[in-house]
TrEMBL record:
Domain Hflx-type G per the UniProt entry, residue ranges: 198-379
Pfam families: GTP-bdg_M (PF16360), GTP-bdg_N (PF13167), MMR_HSR1 (PF01926)
Location of this chain's protein in the cell: Cytoplasm
Protein name: GTPase HflX
Function recorded in the entry: GTPase that associates with the 50S ribosomal subunit and may have a role during protein synthesis or ribosome biogenesis.
Species assigned in the record: Candidatus Geothrix skivensis
Residues the entry annotates as binding GTP: 204-211, 228-232, 262-265, 333-336
GO CC terms, sorted: cytoplasm
Requisite cofactors: Mg(2+)
Residues that span the membrane, as ranges: none
Assembly and interaction partners: Monomer. Associates with the 50S ribosomal subunit.
């Protein structure tokens, strides 16, 4: 018999000054993450709190009330948008009787479900180990309290936690060694790819349509309406037309190609353990000759998504300006879901972007034309947009 879908309650802390609509958007995104992880979302709640309660993060009063409210609805999991300490997770579980997951734990679970290749599996396990290591103490304190041995030093609990820590550290070293080896394999593959073909990487917020654009450009790829559907980098060859300019009559009529790499998507508060563990996969982005930055133009949080993408690109070493900067093209995808005034407004806000619909092939010719410019050399310098630059502190 199939396992029943686990039901969850979602919560997020709303600090004074946090806008209601933003907190609700964050909860909606958390619901998408939960759905992508296989949960059914029973309810979403913003918990207004000025202070963080050090023991339970959200405060025991609000948590107890919530647990009572969902007690008869078959809810088994409590998923929190905030990053919690291990001891806080334990305290919340004890108080509510629900299994508690924080945002990082949820994203890690999705990555664990999706990882297919040896490299992706090792990268996700490394991130999991790094996440669990500082949390062991919380688990131990909890167990120790149950055993009534508070204050004992060098007792059986402490020995056990030292053993657990050592095991995790050993595993981290093994995984790092394995990943260094796999990185060398990847480098050899990269060197073995056809010479002279420009390499372009598809990057962007998760579920924006990167894989759909890979499919539109190369005929391959399996798009899915799930967050983090793609974990492994896939590189395919795209046909860019013939080397011939009908206006000038110049060109040798040779077919022109480039290599397009599809990559893992980004998200707000992408766990730093995952960014670090996916260093090698994301190396494909860093070393690409150009970036196609794909965004879901119909998403209400488009501008925030772009800021997250700009910041994550800088975090992995892709600067928007300077000698090392890669040419970038912003692809505003999913414009089939917008009305004409919205598209005109987008044109005003992002004049250099291509408006596209990857599923119907709209805008793909324009993208091909831009990619063709990469074949003889990089395109001309361009003006940077706000989302690419670091936030300036308010004066
Ligand atoms: N209406 C519409 N839907 C689109 C378009 N492009 C992609 N989609 C849909 O959006 C969903 C996500 O598409 P993907 O191409 O898998 O997105 P992705 O960026 O690769 O997502 P991850 O790999 O999960 O990060 C799928 O259901 C697609 O069919 C578009 O231009 N218009
Ligand atoms: Mg994808």
């Amino acid at each position: 018999m199939a396992e029943p879908t686990p039901r969850c309650l979602l919560i997020a802390r709303q600090a004074p000054g946090d806008r209601d609509d933003l907190t609700q958007d964050h909860l909606l995104e958390l619901a998408e993450l939960a759905r992508s992880c296989g949960f059914e979302v029973q309810a979403r709640r913003a918990l207004k709190r000025a202070e963080i309660a050090s023991k339970t993060f959200y405060g025991s009063g609000q948590l107890t009330a919530l647990a009572e409210e969902v007690a008869r609805q078959g809810v088994t999991h409590l998923i929190c948008d905030d990053e919690l300490r291990g001891s806080q997770v334990n305290a919340i579980e004890k108080l509510t009787g629900l299994i508690c997951l924080d945002r990082t734990g949820l994203i890690l679970s999705i990555f664990e479900q999706r990882a297919q290749s040896r490299e992706a599996k090792a990268q996700v396990e490394l991130a999991r180990c790094e996440y669990e290591l500082p949390r062991l103490k919380g688990a131990w304190t909890h167990l120790e309290r149950q055993g009534g041995g508070v204050g004992l030093r060098g007792g059986p609990g402490e020995t056990q936690i030292e053993v657990d820590r050592r095991m995790i550290r050993t595993r981290i070293s093994q995984l790092k060694r394995e990943l260094t080896h796999l990185e060398q394999v990847r480098e050899t593959q990269r060197l073995g790819r056809p010479k002279g073909l420009p390499r372009v990487a598809l990057v962007g917020y998760t579920n924006a349509g990167k894989t759909s654009l890979l499919k539109a450009l190369t005929g391959e790829g399996e798009p899915k309406d799930l967050l983090f559907a793609t974990l492994d980098t896939t590189t395919r060859k795209a046909w860019l037309g013939q080397d011939f300019d009908p206006e000038t009559g110049e060109g040798a009529l040779e077919p022109m190609h480039c290599l397009v790499a599809d990559t893992v998507g980004f998200i707000r508060k992408l766990p730093h353990q995952l960014v670090a563990a996916f260093r090698s996969t994301l190396g494909e982005v860093r070393t690409a000759d150009a970036l196609l930055v794909v965004a879901d133009a119909a998403h209400p949080d488009l501008e925030d998504h772009l800021k997250v993408v700009g910041a994550t690109l800088r975090e992995i070493g892709c600067e928007p300006e300077g000698v090392e900067a890669q040419p970038r093209l912003l692809v505003l995808n999913q414009v089939d879901r917008l009305h004409r005034p919205q598209k005109l407004d987008l044109k005003r806000r992002h004049p250099g972007a291509v408006q596209a619909c990857a599923t119907e092939g709209l805008g793909v010719d324009e993208i091909r034309l831009w990619l063709r410019e990469l074949v003889p050399g990089p395109p001309r310098p361009r003006a940077l947009e706000d989302w690419e630059l670091p936030e300036t502190a308010p004066s």
